[in-house]
Amino acid sequence: MAFIYDEPSHTFSEYLLLPGYSSAEHTPNNVSLKTPLARYKKGESSKLSINVPLTSAVMQAVSNDTLAIALAQEGGISFIFGSQPIESQAEMVRRVKKHKAGFVTSDSNVRPEDTLADVLALRAKTDHSTMAVTEDGSPNGKLLGLVTSRDYRLSRTPKTTPVKDFMTPFKDLIVGDETTTLPEANDLIWEHKLNQLPIIDKAGNLLYLIFRKDYDTNKDNPLELLDDRKRYVCGAGINTRDYEDRVPALIEAGVDALVIDSSEGYSEWQARTLAWVRDTYGDDVIIGAGNVVDEEGFRFLAEAGADFVKVGIGGGSICITREQKGIGRGQATAVIEVAKARQKYFEETGIYIPICSDGGIVYDYHITLALAMGADFVMLGRYFARFDESPSNKVHIGNSYMKEYWGEGSARARNWQRYDMGGDSKLSFEEGVDSYVPYAGALKDNVQLSLSKIRSTMCNCGALSIAELQDKAKLTLVSSTSIVEGGAHDVTLRNADMDGSNHL
């Protein structure tokens, strides 16, 4: 007969953290949120770690290149949605990898044979006073010098004067090379009192310009997530159908991590996909799998070769899998059981496999609960869909601005390839809805606020790292009455429009 759990499954809202001893060193500034993304052996380190425990969901309405750049600047990683043609997804990855905050491709360029008249005309067109002088006048030609407004005087320099006669020549320039990081560039700018620093390749071709005014770009992003070539880290979603074509294209584009996007991960199709990736690329490619909700599912994917395992079925705000199919589990219970299975697997094999809590996050504190319960990081959809950087439209409804948000299992997304039914089978019913979420502004402002709450809570628990939180955390189930007690009650609020003010 069917196996029936004696205890009900629980959601995050049914738990609270108990405070632990916090010393004088337990301040938010001392908290590290760095966490592993990929499996590693005991005594070694993960091939890829992220600086904050946030990843964005593999969804059309959430993860494109714009959001991937913004999240990498804050220390997290996006998984660009895979329900699009292979080449367009690969191009999004390429755009992320090419983007360098503070590194500007020059769009005001002249040749040495051009005249002051040409310089003035270009300045009137672009409003840029700094121009690169390249051999062919292109943005990436061989750098011969720079022209700024300090290099000529309109009252004394004839407009027919060639640029080569008044430019600052290359031999007098301070330049950086391909290995120069933004902090190093800023140091050169300040040390030599420069307004701009050209970055060139080994052949002397111009790559970028870094301007003094962009110093704050680096200063404001101390946790930005970069690869070993100082490019933003970027992930991408794949499915279990066209992976033999999609994976090579994404790897060629420079993707740092892959994840199988599926409604349910305990399947032969995921094992086949993982086996192909391992047979083709060995351990050189980081690939996560899921989703699962119990020990059996975790074991299956761990033994199949997943670098990380996503946990959660039916807990997303736009997911209706539970009401359509009756499949799923309360997110808190799922995370707790899979975390125990992960620890058991680690003790048996010496291999640590990070787990990702995917779904069920409504409030900021739910993220901290998920981490305390054993998740190494969380994956968020609705949270990121609200921001300027997400790819969906901002619309005005009533007196509020909203962002469009739809599930990958909705008719709008038509992402049936994420449902592992084999062959050319297609889903005949929806498992997601088409909806709106309240517009929340810029990603940076919201993420920093959420992270400040997480750090503060960890200090209350006496923890300065996620691993320490998982070791020290004490959690308690709460009754429905105590949930009511936990919010404002028995008062009349001055601001009547409080609904949702604490929602992500």
UniProtKB/TrEMBL annotation:
One Gene Ontology MF term: IMP dehydrogenase activity
Keyword Transcription regulation among UniProt keywords: no
InterPro entries: Aldolase_TIM, CBS_dom, CBS_dom_sf, IMP_DH, IMP_DH/GMP_Rdtase_CS, IMP_DH_GMPRt
Major enzyme class: oxidoreductase
Cofactor: K(+)
Top-level taxon of the source organism: Bacteria
Reaction(s) catalysed (UniProt annotation): IMP + NAD(+) + H2O = XMP + NADH + H(+)
Enzyme Commission code(s) on record: 1.1.1.205
Sorted UniProt keywords: CBS domain, GMP biosynthesis, Metal-binding, NAD, Oxidoreductase, Potassium, Purine biosynthesis
Transit peptide as UniProt keyword: no
SUPFAM superfamilies: CBS-domain pair, Inosine monophosphate dehydrogenase (IMPDH)
Ranges that cross the membrane: none
Annotated CBS domain residues: 103-163, 167-225
Name of the protein in its database record: IMP dehydrogenase
